[in-house]
Design brief:
Layout lengths: L1 E4 L5 H15 L4 H5 L7 E2 L1 E5 L2 E15 L2 E13 L8 H13 L6 E3 L15 E3 L2 E4 L4 E5 L2 E2 L5 H12 L5 E6 L1 H7 L5 E4 L4 E8 L2 E8 L6 H7 E4 L2 E3 L2 E2 L6 E4 L7 E4 L1 H8 L11
Parallel strand pairs: 5-6, 14-16
Antiparallel strand pairs: 1-3, 2-4, 3-4, 4-5, 4-11, 6-19, 7-19, 8-16, 8-18, 9-15, 10-12, 11-17, 12-13, 13-14
């Protein structure tokens, strides 16, 4: 086995990673790469056996601002092994390599586990962590004052993309990883809010409104954004707004462990009752 890392410009290896990701998770990174959003913050670490990628665990570099203070975290994601190569220790070798490389260079590591491997990560020193989601304490009245933004409108989508890369922090815990935001932004979850001169990534279902992120070059009140999106009987936030102290905080999890962490940074986030933005999950 040979470990290969950060090879996004190698079309052959990138294609192999895409094929394995499609097989295991049902998606790939090629459109994201071709759009220019796969940058240096997403670094695959893969096991190469006889010239073939058979396993992977990627490092996602998360430069954060926590209540005005810088914080660098590494999120480990896209952990996977080809079905024919499981049980041979490849994932263990990759995780050990990532921990050795990154733990001395950051304030902590974290990952979101598949519920079938809850017992795997503590072997490496990861601890069960707490995750929180902010929610409006009651129904939010509003009126629809938002314009959908479609990738099919090239000029408008470019304006949205530029806004993502130039966005000002919009919460107590802000993650500077615009490439990940663009990975999640799609054809029906991006809106422009003219009154606020801001964009929003949001979804609505029978459970109410989920405002995943506000994007603007200036601070925007998250509740104002929720009102512009029509409000709702239940309004949840996929990030920790600046006025998070005025909101309800729900601990996620239950029978499953929502996140595994290592180091002081993630523990401090949990101590403050905050959660990492949903658009930063990898």
């Amino acid at each position: 086995m040979r470990i290969v890392e950060d090879y996004r410009e190698d079309a052959g290896l990138r294609g192999q990673l895409n094929a394995l990701t499609r097989q295991v998770y049902g998606f790939d990174f090629e459109a994201w790469y071709r759009a220019g959003h796969w940058g240096e913050r997403y670094q695959p670490c893969s096991a190469l056996v006889d010239g073939r990628i058979v396993a992977n665990a990627s490092a996602n570099i998360m430069d954060c601002v926590l209540d005005g203070q810088p914080l660098r975290l590494i999120q480990i994601g896209t952990v996977m092994t080809h079905p024919d190569y499981r049980g041979r220790g490849y994932s263990r070798a990759l995780l050990e390599a990532l921990i050795e490389r990154w733990l001395p260079r950051c304030d902590g590591l974290y990952l979101y586990p598949n519920n079938t491997v809850q017992q795997f990560y503590p072997r490496f020193g990861f601890e069960p962590g707490a995750e929180f989601c902010c929610r409006a304490p009651g129904p939010v009245a509003g009126r629809w004052n938002a314009r959908p933004v479609s990738p099919g409108d090239a000029a408008e989508w470019r304006r949205f993309s530029d806004a993502v890369y130039a966005a000002a922090p919009q919460g107590r815990l802000w993650v500077d990883n615009p490439g990940l935001v663009m990975f999640y932004a799609g054809g029906d979850n991006v809106f422009f809010l003219p009154e606020l001169d801001a964009y929003a990534v949001a979804e609505r279902d029978e459970g109410g409104l989920m405002l995943q992120q506000v994007i603007a070059g200036h601070p925007v009140d998250a509740m104002d954004a929720a009102r512009a999106l029509g409000g709702g009987s239940v309004v949840r936030f996929g990030f920790s707004p600046t006025n998070a102290a005025e909101l309800a905080h729900d601990m996620l999890g239950g029978a499953e462990i929502p996140v595994f962490t290592m180091g002081k940074g993630p523990r401090e986030i949990a101590r403050r009752g905050l959660g990492l933005p949903v658009l930063s999950h990898a």
